[in-house]
């Protein structure tokens, strides 16, 4: 056994010493990797943040669709092809409140109460201005987030408009060229009146807000001088608004004075705003409307008012009179159609259009009606079109915006940009779909790599009983391909174009629709479940979406409810290797996945959990009862409350999903007698740590659970979990997270040292990482001078702490420790704040810890198959070394390979938007400190310790790509032992392959076949030349000897 | 009405003053990074990035709300690297900027003060790729191995002619040498180190028949030794 290990390590040593660096050629970009830049799902809830078309003036007018998103990104998408023009990723604590655009600039307010003002170039996204208007600590946290902020544009000076900015609901600031010219704060600091709108005219700036009065709101307007910011006048408008922000609109036509329109007791009222604020509200008679809709066309004096029966009217203000310009026919409440949505848009002459969009249940079409009040010879022009919107693929339309073109007097064309409930952005030009961006992939909750089956050969032709003649015929038919095959063979032999480790992972051409793998298994399927209730099958070779399914709601179908997959609760229950019955006849197995999601109602409450079981290759339902891949993917209700779910992988006996519910009862999936008996045979070794809230302090604790089986009423074994141990933590420490170890094949159980002794790895499969943070509410944490973060390695069966360390918390008191545990190797990253002592420095640290059995080399306790209750379990030695890493880290993972022989690299996603591969050689915790390595250590490939990890750009596997806000990195083995696939997701998606020990199992692509061929042919020529010479010489010798 | 407004203005400006320090600085363009377009979106952070400011189009940045303390300032730029700086914020108005080398202790601080506002410039551009190895006939022929091969080939072809032109005395000497060489080679390949050392030690020994017998003897002896040992 050890001889083999030794031999293996020697062989590997030779391999590694041959080539140990891994780097990317520029020609490999886009071949071995791909990167999808996303912006996230548009925040379509309000006009302040939702997508909007913007035409940028200039020599070539160019349009972009600008939106703020749930991922806190402000981005611009090209309406022509859906490509991302620019984006600005905001920090998580700096949430976008609103944005506004004018000409060539886009201005945004973000942070609490709109603390930060930014101005961007609308075409390039260049940051023109960044300014903090007030400290985030004094910012008003409001819901909705855009309340109390507003951006209004004034005159242009030097190409950039002056800004009037309302922040915190009570402060108005005038900003010219990045400098605050004046600032006004309301007297009562916003306690009575919260301002929400700002209208800038040449004579005055109107701040419009709502004052809370008994059971309703009253409109309040303050007029300020544009030059100095002094109050001209302030007035309460006698009004009673019940719904707050949604019940009034401000019309700020440049031609006349601005007006406020609001709904009060089902009547429409409006008032003209003059600097003196002395106008009286007027209400047109018999204008009974229950709701008004702001179209964003306030500057044109247009809005939509909705009657009680749901009929929408376009309303306009004309020289002091309110009139209904157009009634949308049959837009009232109906069983056949959904409620209408309204939006305003412009064409390139800035002429306004109003559109109504609804979904027809009967026709299954989305209909768009477009009205342009100024066309059709001034009488108004109504056009419309419908398109087939695939509701089973994209859910329902949650928002739309459009722009229009008027090429001929009676023709109006529209480009409609839809945001769907599944988080996709679509652009429809009239009734044809131009492009789709699946932005919900910025919110992936669970990911699994799925190995693809090999391409099926055409063996189906070959019957069982084949006569001689038919066989001859088949072989003759096959023989017609022989010349082609011969040509291919010769060509391949001469040019040496074999598949190499860096060739594109294009699959062999398939006739069937089922995807198949490439030679080296680089082409796999990434199945990703997003928080918007959709599952995608993504081709790992190019990032294309092969299939997608919406998660159905199961038994409880309620409007507005959706399914949110639970973080990382997706399991592979069947792989390509799992074949039913005879492998010869059945062919490769069809991989199947199980996903667990929770049902979230419109109110945000969760009711019940659902389990989805589907075919990973096509997305089709894999349960026997419903085998279809049309419509929604339906799941089965599993447990009302779910604590955790696990996959029991009993190798060739099958895989069982184990679900632990709130009552600590165990549910199995699939639930059959055979899985029950399988699970009962595993109960003794099944132990799980569960994070439970403690009632007393609002603190969390970790309780280890084991499984007890009993015989239920129906004579079937029932399982339930019972607490086996509780981890006692120091006071003031709260559980932050539990990180399970990364399991994979272990190639060697020890490490052979230079002096031929062996360090045996401590391989305890039950280990997990526990991260703690200072408890926020506990008095102990605040009283302690500096509460720290803790990192523990805990045995899940017994609860014994195998390794622990205390780390400093960040200056803000939070713990941001990232850790990964594989085999006996733990790597963690944290920020060290302590610099006051000598020799100390602030900065990020990466610590590498390796656990070995016993006290010295050759000590052996057989940890891999030892029980947790053995007292020898803690007889270990930990080697640890700390390194300085220059960047913050958002995700950490190790590479994984098929057999685990290849050394493991640590892959980190850093705050510099890069994916960095850290070599195992540099992270070896046994590097000699302060001296040159001895020959024995050099034989082990140990290099002298240097506290700074080299920041080698050639190890940045994401190279030029900016992979923003990576939340998690997943690795998957390829068929080649040397290579591992790395998939990073967060905001962006990024996939590449890495070979930590270089591609030792494939002929290096640098291998010069040309040189070989030339040398061989040169030798052949030499033989041809020298052969007659030698013969002549021999003949001569025979004559003259 | 005017009075309270002025008062409030005062109040708010006081409020801004009692806030903390605003750290300003500028990235100046150089040959490595000639402009905003090349730099891309970049952020200047203190320590972990809880306090940060984005780089604007003119290269300037400002980090608001910096409380007194010692910080490490770094630039988060995707494609360019910048020096880290040590920034000591004393109070609301003064800050000291010093050079700092990553990974070295922060204390004692470097005595060399850099000017404030912070001035930064790109020190280098990351190169993520290694150039591909291309096939080069001259390079291939120029490699030492190839040169030896070519020389050897030339010698094989040219040696008979050379020998023909040599005078008989030196020819005899040469042949003698060659025989010894081949003998040595034989000894090497058969692993007969004794015979080899004997050959080396006795240069006068030049009987042509010796190599064969010597070899057989030596190897036999060797084998005998081995068997005796076991």
Automatic annotation (TrEMBL), chain A:
Tell me where on the tree of life, at the top rank, the source sits: Eukaryota
Gene3D superfamilies in UniProt = YVTN repeat-like/Quinoprotein amine dehydrogenase
Residue ranges of domain EMC1 first beta-propeller in the record: 23-439
Q: Which residues form the ER membrane protein complex subunit 1 C-terminal domain?
A: 822-1039
Q: Check the UniProt entry and state the signal peptide residues, or none.
A: 1-23
Broad class of the protein's primary localization: endoplasmic reticulum
Q: Which Pfam families match?
A: Beta-prop_EMC1_N, EMC1_C
What membrane topology term does the record carry?
Single-pass type I membrane protein
* Annotated InterPro entries: Beta-prop_EMC1_1st, EMC1, EMC1_C, Quinoprotein_ADH-like_sf, WD40/YVTN_repeat-like_dom_sf
| Keyword line | Endoplasmic reticulum, Glycoprotein, Membrane, Signal, Transmembrane, Transmembrane helix
User: What subcellular compartments does it reside in?
Assistant: Endoplasmic reticulum membrane
Q: Assembly state and interactors? A: Component of the ER membrane protein complex (EMC).
- Name the protein family: Belongs to the EMC1 family.
What name does UniProt use for this protein? ER membrane protein complex subunit 1
Q: Which organism encodes this protein?
A: Marasmiellus scandens
UniProtKB/TrEMBL annotation, chain B:
Question: Per the database record, which ranges form the ER membrane protein complex subunit 7 beta-sandwich domain?
Answer: 41-148
Region Disordered, annotated ranges: 197-230
Q: Where in the cell is it found?
A: Membrane
Q: Can you tell which superkingdom this protein's organism belongs to?
A: Eukaryota
* InterPro entries xref list: Beta_sandwich_EMC7, Carb-bd-like_fold, EMC7
What membrane topology does this protein have? Single-pass membrane protein
Q: Where is the composition biased (Polar residues)?
A: 211-222
Signal peptide (UniProt feature, chain positions): 1-20
Q: Which residues cross the membrane?
A: 137-162
Instruction: Give the UniProt keywords, A-Z.
Output: Carbohydrate metabolism, Membrane, Polysaccharide degradation, Signal, Transmembrane, Transmembrane helix
User: What SUPFAM superfamilies does the entry give?
Assistant: Starch-binding domain-like
Q: Which family does it belong to?
A: Belongs to the EMC7 family.
Q: What is this protein called?
A: ER membrane protein complex subunit 7 beta-sandwich domain-containing protein
The lineage is: Eukaryota, Fungi, Dikarya, Basidiomycota, Agaricomycotina
